[in-house]
């Protein structure tokens, strides 16, 4: 019967599309076998074994499957840094990726039924909890080798725009649209335009939809209510919960008893009405790293503010060209620790009985 909420013409096309996928993938594997064999030899010679890269990705309905590609980068090296993708990329790997040859093993995923020729590209499993309800609709169909977002700008698009194109495809999928995407894909590959894809060095990680209910204002910005000493500051009295722990100097800054210094940047996150919700910022700022803090403006503190505030800070870090963000979380605050971990912060160094250090590597 199929999903009754899906228009009948799309249900019919979905049934036909699977047959077309099998035919195209089978034919593609046969025709591409010489290229794949040659690529396997090159990868083995330059990177060693295994020649294939395997990773769990979410498919239709969010169900996990193992995606298969040709390797193009060396294994992470602690002396180089896991985040240094450019250093790990070989010349041969760059060439393979520029021609999209590394994606050819995906045809096996199509033949197995994990993927389709055309559909939203499979992204990281960690993103499932970061999507908005609308963005999650991209998983109503099988992921594809190529998709509408990939021929509309790929990594040049913002994440919000890319995911909106994915959902638009789900809502309007048809044979005509798939053929249009395929023709445009061939043209882009031949011109080598926008070939970088999710997981490559030129694509930033997705941390969630761009927050629309909060915006950052510099703590010293004109227009905020003034402290007794005349400097600008948000109202709200004593600070509330400290989710990304603030040091004593930071608490003095947000309390108005101390001015900021060149090694820090401080903001207040306000809602649409201009009401202050969180104090946040960077301390121990260098050209590549910073420590962050997030403090509620008042009690009771709304934990739902952590994620959007953190996303705004990450966006500022990208604008500044920072490569790593560090924070400390209360060892007893398991919920905040889970929130930071869900946004790819990882525990670093030794924890003590009171605090846990965490860090995020930015691409």
Automatic annotation (TrEMBL):
Recorded GO MF terms: phosphotransferase activity, for other substituted phosphate groups
Whether Membrane counts among this entry's keywords is: yes
- Its domain of life? Bacteria
Q: Does the keyword Heme apply?
A: no
Membrane-crossing residues?
A: 22-47
**The Bacterial sugar transferase domain covers which part of the protein?**
17-190
Q: Which UniProt keywords apply?
A: Membrane, Transferase, Transmembrane, Transmembrane helix
Coiled-coil stretches noted in the UniProt entry, renumbered to this chain: none
Q: Gene3D superfamilies this protein is in?
A: 3.40.630.30
Q: Which family does it belong to?
A: Belongs to the bacterial sugar transferase family.
Quote the protein name from its UniProt record: Sugar transferase involved in LPS biosynthesis (Colanic, teichoic acid)
């Amino acid at each position: 019967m199929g999903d009754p909420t899906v228009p009948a013409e799309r249900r019919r096309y979905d049934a036909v599309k699977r047959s077309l996928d099998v035919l195209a993938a089978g034919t593609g594997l046969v025709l591409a076998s010489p290229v794949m064999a040659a690529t396997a030899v090159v990868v083995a010679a330059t990177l060693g074994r295994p020649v294939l890269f395997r990773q769990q990705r979410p498919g239709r309905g969010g169900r996990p499957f193992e995606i298969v590609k040709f390797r193009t980068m060396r294994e992470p090296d602690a002396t180089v840094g896991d985040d240094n993708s450019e250093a790990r990329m070989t010349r041969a790997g760059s060439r393979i990726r520029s021609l999209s040859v590394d994606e050819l093993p995906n045809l096996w995923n199509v033949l197995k039924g994990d993927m389709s020729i055309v559909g939203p590209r499979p992204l990281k499993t960690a993103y499932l909890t970061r999507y908005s309800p609308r963005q999650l609709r991209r998983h109503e169909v099988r992921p594809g080798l190529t998709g509408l977002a990939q021929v509309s700008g790929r990594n040049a698009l913002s994440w919000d725009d890319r995911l909106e194109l994915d959902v638009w495809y789900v809502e309007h999928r048809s044979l005509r649209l798939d053929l249009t995407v395929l023709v445009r894909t061939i043209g882009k590959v031949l011109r080598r335009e926008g070939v970088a894809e999710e997981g490559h060095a030129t694509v930033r990680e997705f941390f969630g939809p761009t927050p629309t209910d909060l915006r950052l204002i510099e703590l010293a910005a004109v227009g905020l209510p003034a402290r007794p000493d005349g400097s600008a500051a948000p109202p709200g009295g004593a600070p509330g919960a400290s989710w990304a722990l603030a040091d004593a100097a930071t608490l003095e800054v947000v309390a108005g008893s101390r001015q900021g210094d060149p090694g820090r940047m401080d903001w207040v996150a306000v809602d649409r009405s201009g009401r202050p919700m969180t104090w946040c910022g960077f301390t121990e700022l260098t050209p590549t790293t910073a420590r962050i803090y997030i403090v509620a403006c008042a009690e009771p503190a709304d934990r739902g503010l952590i994620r959007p505030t953190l996303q705004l800070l990450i966006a500022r870090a990208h604008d500044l060209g920072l490569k790593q963000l560090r924070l400390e979380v209360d060892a007893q605050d398991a919920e905040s620790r889970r929130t930071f971990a869900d946004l790819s912060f990882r525990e670093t160094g030794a924890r003590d009985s009171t605090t846990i250090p965490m860090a995020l590597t930015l691409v």
